[in-house]
Design goal:
Protein name (chains A, B, C): UDP-3-O-acylglucosamine N-acyltransferase
Largest sheet of chain A: 12 strands, mixed
Subunit structure (chains A, B, C): Homotrimer.
CATH architecture of the largest domain in chain A: 3 Solenoid
Helix content of chain A: 10-25%
InterPro entries (chains A, B, C): Hexapep (IPR001451), Hexapep_transf_CS (IPR018357), LpxD (IPR007691), Trimer_LpxA-like_sf (IPR011004), UDP_GlcNAc_AcTrfase_non-rep (IPR020573)
Strand content of chain A: 25-35%
Strand order of the largest sheet of chain A: 7-10-13-16-19-24-27-30-33-36-38-39
Oligomer: homotrimer
CATH topology of the largest domain in chain A: UDP N-Acetylglucosamine Acyltransferase, domain 1
Distance between the termini of chain A: 53 Å
CATH class of the largest domain in chain A: Mainly Beta
Catalytic activity (chains A, B, C): a UDP-3-O-[(3R)-3-hydroxyacyl]-alpha-D-glucosamine + a (3R)-hydroxyacyl-[ACP] = a UDP-2-N,3-O-bis[(3R)-3-hydroxyacyl]-alpha-D-glucosamine + holo-[ACP] + H(+)
EC number (chains A, B, C): 2.3.1.191
Number of helices of chain A: 4
Shape of chain A: flat
CATH superfamily of the largest domain in chain A: Hexapeptide repeat proteins
Structural class of chain A: alpha/beta
Largest interface: A-B, 62 and 62 residues
């Protein structure tokens, strides 16, 4: 079970409540108690597991878990004595049950005596500000937020309700919606990479006069960077999630629900429509438009617009089917057999 | 116009002063007043815009801006009532006008009471040291510098005049010239990646006994890392600019005016001559020499020296012309048509 | 010689002691004194150099160093008056001599008055806690550790003896062995990138209920990120070293002595066996197994298991021999000559 030093548990919980949280149906005694969650391979009779990938079907049949959240197709494979919690979305169901057993601690309202908070900053009700946090002039932080140790919030920044700014992140020149999460070391709002060459070989900075706007429920990974706009704003649409070590250049705009995986980078002024996925270490040049639900493959190098619902891979990128055909030919070249 | 919460404006300014700042000529009333800058698409009659890319020529013809900085070739396309500010370098001109309207605030001289500054550290006149900054023994910081919140300056570090060390950056084992900028989370001077394998399968650290030298006007992006030298120094030449999430390995040396774009990496002991450009996510192996004005393409993987004024792309990299020819052939392979 | 502002020297030392530290044999006066170390090209008669790469043999013949650590094959090439310190492992020998002349300063025991340390945290004997460090409830830090300025150690974290946590790093939900080093800005233990899509287009976070376990002598580079496990732990095996800006996803496990070079990334649940090397900017997808002593080339994109002792390159990756053959063919295509 989860290490109680790090993950205090709220259980036990009744099977009926667990099923309701999971949005799952079951047969059996709804009063049966469970203590926590665990993986199939290690769970015991007081723990709940899940299966969402047939790769682990064997682990399902051998599990010691007391209950397993799974799709109907696997329900009859759960061992005797184990309750199947049946749902069409077992991964989502398990996320909700895990959260039931290990609810995220609420912020402890109050401002640590060591926090430096500007006199005209406004802090919402129920918000926790941690040791050595710095909140600048005129900043406004919403209700029920968590601002961890050593976070720096610049002058004028606006932060909505129920946001979490984790240790060591910094945010300036920005407006955040509600339920925004900045993971440790995230850097929001700094000056982007804009400068004009002079005739005598120097670079003069182009003032970056825009902001960063993060929509509701946006999450930004550890040590990721989002530069503010040069004249307009850099905008991350509601619900979008960025993994760690991601770079977002100035004036990028994304729609809702975009996913940008670790170490990917999006150059300035590129636009992502809704629900675009950019896989790990991919790179997009500037001034592109990526259509809704497009999927950019890992390590792809995108230099042209990508239509909606199109999957691309490679550098320079091409539609996935073409890519694999080209790679198969290349592999034959490598194996010494002509195309 | 720029959000006044984040970008206080110094205007209004006279057209004649704006033109002088831009290095531009114009026809019209030099006393006409302007309030700020804005993009072509949204500017009003009291705002100044610019055009430096013919892609936006249509926006120029439709603009509501009161003045537009542009090249002679576009001067007759500015709408009636709009003043053309003509210069051969509109981008540079606009940078100077934007800075005129939104001058960077000067440091507020003084040391925040919470800053921990070693007794023998020397702080120059007019320098601002922010909350929770830490300045180590024997460090010397020049005049007119800005050291933001939570910056860590290690023992013995020397920093020239008019430098800006932004929130959360750290610098040790380093000597910085004047007008150096470290963006948030930049890491300067830490131990590089050097260790000796032992016969019994362990690694012993090779002491890294060099420093980092940053020339005048060098800028280092957010969360970028520059490791100190192992015996000699890691040197970034004057005026060079590094974007975010860049990695510079120990003993790298660059000439003046080099540009390293986001997430690129340069391995140890590689040398860049003057005015080299390394595009986003490119990687250079160690012990290379990259000639002056060479341009390394995005995501390139450079494993050999590159001559001066040469453009390379690909991984492994090759001259650009060869690269595109190879890609065209590869694309045909992918489309099912033989070379 | 090393800049004494940054690298106090402990010399002079006797040649006999230097040889013993290097594990080297020599002919000459063991009482001869040396002041420090320096590269071949700049060393003087009171300094010790080394040669471990025949590329520098010419520098050996011309050196002014008083002693050079080298293999037997080069011993007769040292100039007259220069002592050859002969060992089969000159690089390792030099590392030990450099450490003899510039021993790493021991922690200065004590807790800085500005450090915020939870009342129930346990700090071992001889440990140094620097300004503005924050140590959370129930954390346990071993003996002889160095915790630099502004480091954040989360609740319940366990840290072994002789660890070094450098400026601005953060660690939560983790257990560290002994002699672990976290370089500036390293991020350990934060929530990994796990979330479930909902039918109405939102993302719900999958609680990440695992930890990070770092074995003895693990080192993590500047601004690198290691996410905690989702149910099990993310584990880095003893002696492994990660360079800067590396991303380690949740549930990754490595064996001992793994090397991950700058800006590489390993996706969730991938397993590395012992002594795997992942070169700069490489990327590995999730749920892979990489066999012992495999070597992943720079910028490789690994999408399948790699057998032990296998070298791969390319994206998608292939055995090195095939890769170079394919690249040679591709280069011919680019040069306009058919395969």
């Amino acid at each position: 079970m989860a290490d109680p030093r790090f993950f205090p548990a709220s259980g036990p919980h009744r099977l009926a409540d667990i099923a309701r949280a999971a949005g799952a149906s079951f047969e059996g005694d709804g009063e049966r108690r469970f203590a926590g969650v665990a993986p199939l391979q290690s769970a015991g009779p007081e723990e709940v597991s899940f299966l969402d990938n047939r790769r682990y079907a064997e682990a399902l049949r051998a599990t010691g878990a007391g209950a397993v959240i799974c799709a109907q197709a696997f329900a009859e494979q759960v061992p005797a004595g184990c309750v199947a919690l049946v749902t069409a979305q077992p991964y989502l169901g398990f996320a909700r049950v895990a959260a039931l057993f290990h609810p995220r601690p609420a912020p402890v309202p109050g401002i640590h005596p060591t926090a430096v908070v500007a006199a005209d900053a406004v802090i919402g009700e129920g918000t926790e500000i941690g040791p050595y946090a710095v909140v600048g002039a005129g900043a406004r932080i919403g209700a029920g937020c968590l601002v961890e140790a050593q976070v720096t919030i610049g002058a004028g920044v606006e932060i909505g309700d129920h946001c979490r700014l984790l240790a060591h992140c910094s945010v300036s020149h920005a407006i955040l919606g509600s339920h925004v999460v900045l993971h440790p070391g995230a850097r929001i709002g700094q000056e982007g990479f804009g400068f004009a060459p002079t005739p005598d070989g120097r670079f003069e900075t182009m003032p970056q006069l825009g902001r960063v706007l993060l929509g509701d429920h946006v999450e930004v990974g550890a040590n990721s960077c989002i530069d503010r706009g040069s004249q307009g704003d850099t905008v991350i649409g509601p619900g979008s999630r960025l993994d760690n070590l991601v770079q977002i250049g100035h004036n990028v705009r994304t729609g809702r629900g975009c996913i940008v995986v670790g170490q990917a980078g999006i150059s300035g002024s590129t636009v992502l429509e809704d629900y675009v996925t950019v896989a790990a270490q991919a790179g997009l040049t500037g001034h592109l438009r990526i259509g809704a639900q497009a999927r950019i493959g890992a390590q792809a190098g995108v230099m042209n617009d990508v239509p909606a619902k199109t999957d691309v891979m490679g550098s320079p990128s091409m539609p996935v089917r073409e890519f694999w055909r080209a790679m198969a030919k290349l592999k034959k070249l490598g194996a010494g057999r002509e195309g």
